[in-house]
Amino acid sequence: MKVTETFLKGCFVIEPTVFGDKRGRFFEVFNKKIFEEKTGLNIEFVQDNQSISQRGVLRGLHLQKGEHAQAKLVRVIQGKVLDVIVDVRKNSPTYGKHFSIELSEENNKQLFIPRGFLHGFSTLEDNTIFSYKCDNYYNKKAEDGVIYNDKALNIDWRLEKNEILISEKDKILTTFLEFRK
Questions:
Q1: N or C: which end of the chain has fewer CB within 10 A?
Q2: In what pathway does it function (predicted)?
Q3: 151 contacts: CB under 8 Å, gap ≥ 6
Q4: Does any domain span residue 82?
């Protein structure tokens, strides 16, 4: 398993070792011991979530605030997404910076996102299955987020404006400037 820290401290791209033969392929999705050795982090995941989306679906930018904040380990089981995170840790030197990565069933890459990050993804293929582990339970009252097309963040979601499918809830999220207050 290859683990590489991004320029956003505490965020890691994880690339499993894939074993393949004429029967198919096998890889270890998560190994707590190896994860701790390579990242120095002791994470206890308590909840697994999964979504299925068509091309053009954009989910985000979301986070859970306060005591309900969540670290996540995200991956794609089928299809392809552009996964995006934004550092909103107040004292971080990379506050307001974002990182994006393509996650797909072909590349098997995963992204570890620590607490204190907005998270979202755009679906680049039909019938994409997105899966993620969380280290804290979801709490509806702790939901927060920033509008996906915020000009201050200037995120390229790799979708045309007319093909974006977004929830009503995500259409009314605040701007990054308002979020910062």
A1: C
A2: Carbohydrate biosynthesis; dTDP-L-rhamnose biosynthesis
A3: none
A4: yes
Copy the structure tokens of residue 76: 């794609």
Host domain of residue 61: 44-180
Q: What is the pTM of this model?
A: 0.94
Conformation bin of residue 127: beta by default, left when phi > 0, alpha when psi is -120 to 50: left
Question: Residue 155 falls within a domain, yes or no?
Answer: yes
Please give the structure tokens belonging to residue 2. 């290859």
Q: Strand, coil or helix: what is 97?
A: coil
> Left (φ > 0), alpha (ψ -120 to 50) or beta: where does 134 sit?
beta
CATH for 165:
2.60.120.10
117 domain residue, yes or no: yes
- Whole-angstrom distance, CA of residue 101 vs CA of residue 155: 12
Distances (CA, A) of 43 to 2, 3, 33, 46, 131: 18, 15, 10, 10, 17
Q: Give the tens place of pLDDT for each residue, 84-140.
A: 999 999 999 999 999 999 999 999 999 999 999 999 999 999 999 999 999 999 999
C-alpha radius of gyration, the chain, whole number: 16
Q: Which residues are catalytic?
A: 62, 132
Q: Which of 16, 15, 19, 14 is nearest to 43 (CA)?
A: 14
Instruction: Name the domain count of the chain.
Output: 1
Residue 82, SS3 per DSSP: strand
